[in-house]
Design a protein that fits this description.
The structure is a homotetramer.
Chain A: H1 2-5, E1 12-16, H2 21-37, E2 43-47, H3 51-55, E3 60-63, H4 70-78, H5 94-118, E4 123-126, H6 131-141, E5 146-149, H7 153-167, E6 181-188, E7 191-199, E8 202-203, H8 205-215, H9 239-248, H10 253-262, E9 265-266, H11 270-276, H12 279-282, H13 286-291, H14 299-317, H15 332-339, E10 345-352, E11 365-373, E12 376-379, H16 387-408, H17 412-421, H18 430-444
Parallel strand pairs in A: 1-2, 3-4, 4-5
Antiparallel strand pairs in A: 6-7, 7-8, 7-9, 10-11, 11-12
Helix pairs in contact in A: 2-14, 4-5, 4-14, 5-6, 5-16, 5-18, 6-16, 8-10, 16-17
Chain lengths: 456, 456, 456, 456
């Protein structure tokens, strides 16, 4: 929303759909107030009562949903703790990510069918986790869809690489924009790798190697927090912000450890990376997590944060305060502009594998660079991962494919098999794995219409 | 050897090479005595002092070696127990299999080069474990080699299926030969799967389903022991035989459990199957192994058994006793005959993937059926594994490829990375994994010439 | 039919459907008379009024149709002659084969849908030309179909190879059965290649090389006629038989010329092979055809022959003569028995590419060996063609895929593009190619319902 | 050379190697004079006596050679005319292109080995025809080479598309730079296709369709000449320039005809496109060529032009005239800058297929877009060609692979087989094809050392 205020070249109409009509309405009010205050009348916001209404006539569709609610997510993240399985995020992979997928896939099938009927030529930009699974679902349900999954995790790594160069004296502090850091990206969302990186005529790898040699043990705390979005204030950090920093920032130790062992730069926050590795490495227990310099994000914090955000939205809606506009650092608007023919963008994106990663299964959703142009997103050939990382990535790619098949085939036992083979769950006995699966399903899945499996 | 006695159609000269010249000589003496006693003068045995001598002029080469000695194998199998990792065999996969691979690969490179120079058109029939890795090494070192890996594990499963039919009343007990059981085989050695099975016009799957329903919990002890070879005696079982039964037979519970969960018939002994699965399932600790109805084979038993065999060989060599000839049930001779143009054989075999398993990496050594004909072994297209089993098999295929690359590239750190990602080892912290790897390497690898890694 | 008389192991009910109900009835009468005369009451024949009736309850379905009638075929074969394009058969490939495909594909879509609805688990054995196109259509319309295309051309080449060995003195004349000749087969129907061939322990290639050196120029006329089916009589050849010999036999010169240039044994009749090669090689004009020792089969002969066959059928039906039973040499019954679980058969067959020819597009229908077993036909990995032959085969594979796409997409212009790129048609100017295409379509295609393209 | 004068950001040393040392020296003198006159002392030119000397220490290597001399090329182009085969260029494909390849491949093997030994990390930018074959040879000889083939034909098509938009009134005449035309490029060099094209927010295809409807019959002569390089003068056209226009310009009728039939935009000059199609379409005889609005380039013109260029070089070298510097429109310098880390470039380029065209054989050299960055050229996934164009492109790809194999394997008969299957040559009888092949080889190939085949 805020980026639109600063946009000069394109204009449009934004239709909002939310399963809570009131939230859609609130957002429309806030959006319209914001643009009118900044004299950007070319943008208007409209809340819509149905998905079909919102989609019809669209050129670009953004999807960002929470599959289920935070109580479901509390089960995703915390229920496995009873079995010794800790998760730092629990939304992409692992026990939590797979159960969340069981809620996500049916919803994305609905969305894909709605796009097919109401806006088959629109671009669908997806920001929902689990990213690979939700994007793959769109294509599996409606193969001609034009969809892409976008995520800012690689951007944060690019910012870190800029900092690395600045620390090494290649440029003054804060002078390198992350867009100047050219990285070759390959892998899957939240477990993405960089095997080439340059800034101008410099190869970044030797600098990163020095950096890791220096900081791998003690950690690097000056790195920017894992997400800088919505960080508004300055001065003395308010408690809300302190909590956010605590749960989202990291000492980059996981990233550096992976680099020292594998030689490639892992391009996601440590919280995510840890979940895609064998859990004994970085997630064995809370003490180990702390020792590695990152944090388990409790869902209780998310609930509190959501309440605060809702409260603030209410304040904005009622005009008791005005929202400040600031450039977000997200690329959503740049993508829209490129797709509309305004400029060319090269960035990382999640797309079905059509040859960009020849060592991954065809049609699996992989994350690589792509060129964004008028009505086109074309991935760059990214080469192959070394065999050891290929093994780790393939584990997750096949789990993602498996959980999607399980829902499409309404096969609860297949879902359990995939769950039981998960890196973390496979440390449990079959009996415990079954008990955990049954518990998580019972707590978070609505069977019958809209649920992943037929009742019975 | 024994099969030759009964062979009527072909004849030949057998040259024996062993790193122990004395053992080769012993075997030659025994072999010649055996065939002369049975008036099979068309076969002669000759001990050879060098690999090159033995290979030159050969049409078919059999390779069956123990990489290293049983003290090394004791480290393979038992060293990980200190870290809670139990292994039932430890020769194909897992911590033990991978370290054994580090000893095997350099030896098979030597063999491949010797074949290239001395017998480039000969067929190489490999019986060595780790089977997939050793066979793949032959092709990687000498891509034009004509090599195949053979193993009897699938045969035992075919025997079990015959028993299943007999128990169901389809045929009188003992009346179905295992060769009549037609199975479609796909996967990798010791983790091979059957997704189609028939006898005459019967589909075996419904019968196996009933069988598993009946016996999955209590186990099926009347099944033939996992290996029947060399089981000579009758009457009261001698202690040696009792130990063998104890360590090699199983209640087939692992196999039936896998069937009940995955719907395919696992075609190897439970001891092998367990090692290819997450270790929490069947190998968490000795008690769990016992509960599942199979056994951990202690290397001490192998050492004792080897001593007994050597003693018996000495007896045979010195003429103090005569070896009895019995048909072995192995297919080695049938394969030789087919390759020589005597009949056509369809059987399972380990070969580089040239399309027979389109969901596995090209050139990985996979186990499927093949047709054996004059100078040809042609694999049958075996289709794809279901995505969940594909994930388990792919884990091992990439580990196998990774450990081979590590040796070819002399990259000890890559070997460690592969080791650390192993299904069982990945339950350890990185520190423990490193300690275990270093210990096992130090105990069993000779660096420098002939070792997998350069000294230093 | 005749083979059934000699069959001892299986029995069944044969339902006949023909677009001419009278013909179906005639065949049923003849069939029942034949089996009752030979006391084979276990087989019964029944004419059915609809395709659906005939299919319902079937285990195995045989499809052998003439797409259109012989007047259409006269256009296929002879219309291009006005433009200097001669065709020896005109039913598989080239201008005639592609136009015939436009009639065939819609009919096979109907058959595939009928199988899907009435007998989805039945095996469909297809004997219709164009073989590759009609078999591929079945799978494209109903992907789960169990269909295979069978053809005896390779058998004739195997007979020739037996003769080659007998001529070389390897065995007495007539002593080698074609089933003893083991060939590795790869390519597409009627343009199939043998790159390995053996009989017992002999490699046939050196003998074939000598044979070609001896006969390539003068031709080899003692070879069996290209088809021996239905050749009944002995003694002085009757005129009908003489005409058949004239149009179907060859001097094998095309086959030998291809061998001398490419080093592989072409495994189809010269009449077919010539059509798959650049037409300037063997089909430039009738004189060149004669010089190469084979013949252009005029459709007028086919019409006369059909009339004679119908007349003979009438005679049989009315009991004025009795049909003699003789073993046909076709494999249809052996295939049925293998699929029913009676024995194992290895033979060549046309199946979608699932890895058996890794250098051909996935799903293209290719001809290789396969193993036939209870409810299974599993192709053998056949390796790759040399790059020059791969180019020729790929030309036809892509034309086949293109003409099928054109019909499925109702795209007449795509059909023309494929036609215009055909090896023979591409020697015409675009204007002539268009005129020929329009003429052939106008004469042989019924648009609208059942036709390949929408009226328009 | 001329572009360097205007270059501000990079500097360097240019070493020239030519099989004629005098020509290298001449070029060095001219280059140094040019840069010193323009005060660009940061660039220096040096003639080198050996390839190894020139390569050592290089960061970027440009290769642009004439394989053989113009007398050889006269044979390539004109010898087939005796058999009715006309060629408009004769350097990439067809009879002339394949024979030229037999001279090119051995030279590029030498170059690849020299790069391997003297500059293994340098980028090799290749401008030599046959482009696909010479670039593929570099990779086949030295697989780790960093090489790319560059060609300006697509640029000319982009210029045409700019003109199309200007004619349609989308922008003032001459206002659209070709770099603003975004095309998706796929295919092979000189037979390259555009399936997506946009300018800002406009889809160019509808405009091009109108353009083709308007001009397909009469031709479009205002299009820029097929090559604008070195066209210096203004005012009354001099005879030299008139000849050039006559032989290189076209009415774009071939391009428009292909568009009207296939729906994709062919992205090369008509002279090239015609040669990649069946010759009866556009190259049946000189009259047809003229009717289609383009020309056969006689080698006599090339010889005269070369003499004129050499004369002019002499004049420059002796200081009797000064070379004028003008921006060339070629991208060589922009590529160098991007590879050195100065900016990012997206352009079309010839690279081994690593997934960018999944319907073409792996490792075949294909032409698609790529991103040029510091030390990287990464192709964009370009999707698949429609099946009809795929057939035409595949024909040439396999011929290219075949002729390369023939030279690497020293197999003259394989070279003949590939030659005989060429689109134009396959219209000849085998006897004529053989005679033409033998004649062309005899006239242009030096056997023995450096020749493609062993003497004998």
């Amino acid at each position: 929303m805020q980026d639109l205020v600063f946009e000069q070249e394109i204009a449009g109409r934004i239709e909002l759909y939310d399963i809570s009509p009131e939230d859609a309405e609130t957002n429309a009010v806030i959006g319209n107030a914001l643009v009118s205050r900044h004299k950007r009348g070319q943008w208007t916001f409209h809340a819509k009562a149905s998905l079909e209404d919102a989609l019809s006539g669209s050129d670009v569709v953004f999807v960002s949903i929470l599959p289920g609610d935070f109580e479901d997510m509390a089960v995703d993240v915390h229920a496995p703790e009873a079995y010794g399985i800790y998760q730092s995020v629990g939304d992409s992979v692992g026990a939590g990510g797979l159960i969340r997928a069981l809620r996500t896939i049916p919803q994305f099938r609905v969305i894909a069918r709605a796009v097919e009927h109401c806006a088959p030529d629109a671009w669908v930009i997806n920001y929902t986790n689990p990213m690979s699974i939700s994007t793959r679902t769109l294509y599996k349900e409606f193969p001609r869809i034009k969809a892409a999954g976008c995520c800012h995790e690689v951007f944060n790594t690019q910012k870190l690489l800029a900092t690395v160069l600045e620390l090494a004296g290649c440029a003054p502090e804060g002078s390198i924009a992350r867009e100047e850091i050219h990285t070759r990206v390959l892998g899957i969302n939240h477990f993405t790798w960089i095997d080439r990186a340059s800034w101008k005529d410099l190869d970044i790898f030797p600098y990163y190697k020095q950096f890791a040699a220096r900081y791998a043990e003690e950690g690097f705390r000056d790195a920017p927090p894992a997400t800088t979005f919505a960080t508004g204030g300055a001065g003395a950090e308010d408690p809300e912000e302190a909590a956010r920093r605590r749960f989202f920032s990291s000492a980059e130790r996981v990233k550096m450890d992976l680099f020292r062992r594998y030689g490639l730069i892992a391009a996601a926050g440590d919280r995510h990376l840890a979940e895609f590795c064998p859990h004994a490495w970085y997630l064995a227990n809370p003490e180990q997590v702390e020792a590695w310099g990152y944090a388990l994000t409790p869902v209780s914090w998310r609930i509190a944060n959501q309440n605060a955000l809702k409260e603030r939205a209410k304040v904005y809606r009622e005009g008791r305060a005005t929202m400040k506009a600031a450039v977000s650092g997200e690329e959503g608007l740049a993508i829209v502009k490129a797709l509309m023919g305004q400029g060319t963008l090269i960035s990382n994106v999640n797309l079905p594998n059509q040859g960009q990663m020849p060592d991954m299964p065809r049609d699996a959703v992989v994350e690589t660079n792509a060129v964004f142009l008028r009505d086109r997103i074309e991935p760059l050939a990214a080469g192959e991962l070394p065999v050891d990382l290929r093994a780790l990535v393939t584990h997750h790619v096949l789990a993602q494919e498996g959980i999607i098949e399980a829902v499409f085939e309404q096969d609860r036992e297949k879902a359990f098999r995939v769950f039981s083979q998960d890196l973390a769950v496979q440390t449990l006995s079959l009996r415990d794995a079954r008990a955990l699966f049954d518990h998580m399903c019972a707590k978070t899945l609505r069977n019958g219409a809209g649920g992943p499996f037929r009742a019975g």
